[in-house]
Amino acid sequence: MTSRTPITLGAVNVEADDPPALARFYAALLDTEVAGGEDGYAFLAPRPDGGFAMFFQRRSGPRPEHSGQHLDLTVPWGSREAEAERAVSLGAEHRWDVLDEVPWVRWTTLADPEGNLFCLAEHPPS
């Protein structure tokens, strides 16, 4: 059997109408900074305490009404509502909450300023 390096998540790439503006929204939401970008691209480097990089590129085609992929961002237990309010204050739109359907997670689904869905999820302490 051949030895190989395992596949790992390096970054999440988000197509955007205005990549720098959307990068600034996520930088503020994730308490980080826009690390760079030019000519229709922007990116957030991983936070020093861990996480993943995010790249934003100019949208290449029409937006589907509901993408099959979205970000699930984990927040500390008990902070989901406050973090959702903070996201709304940064330009997100609240869509719905799922509080009692799954015993090991509660989440709030929001849309970023360009309408892309993302969730803020909290898991009960073990």
Model description:
This protein is an alpha/beta fold and 126 residues long. The protein folds into 2 domains: 10-59, Signal recognition particle alu RNA binding heterodimer, srp9/1 (2-Layer Sandwich); 70-126, Roll (2,3-Dihydroxybiphenyl 1,2-Dioxygenase, domain 1). It is 17% helix and 33% strand. It has helices at 19-29, 80-89, and strands at 11-16, 34-36, 41-44, 53-58, 71-74, 93-98, 106-111, 117-122. It has a 4-stranded mixed sheet. The relative contact order is 0.19.
Low-confidence stretches: none
Shape annotation: globular
Strand coverage percent: 25-35%
- Sheet with the most strands: spatial strand order: 1-4-3-2
Helical residues, percent: 10-25%
Distance between the termini: 39 Å
Please indicate the count of domains: 2
CATH topology of the largest domain: 2,3-Dihydroxybiphenyl 1,2-Dioxygenase, domain 1
Rounded to an integer in angstroms, the radius of gyration calculated over CA atoms is 16 Å
Quickly count the helices.
Answer: 2
Largest sheet: 4 strands, mixed
Secondary-structure element order, N to C: EHEEEEHEEE
Structural class: alpha/beta
**Mean pLDDT, all residues:** 87
Question: Keywords for this structure?
Answer:
single chain, 126 residues, alpha/beta, Signal recognition particle alu RNA binding heterodimer, srp9/1, 2,3-Dihydroxybiphenyl 1,2-Dioxygenase, domain 1, 2 domains, four-stranded mixed β-sheet, 2 helices, globular
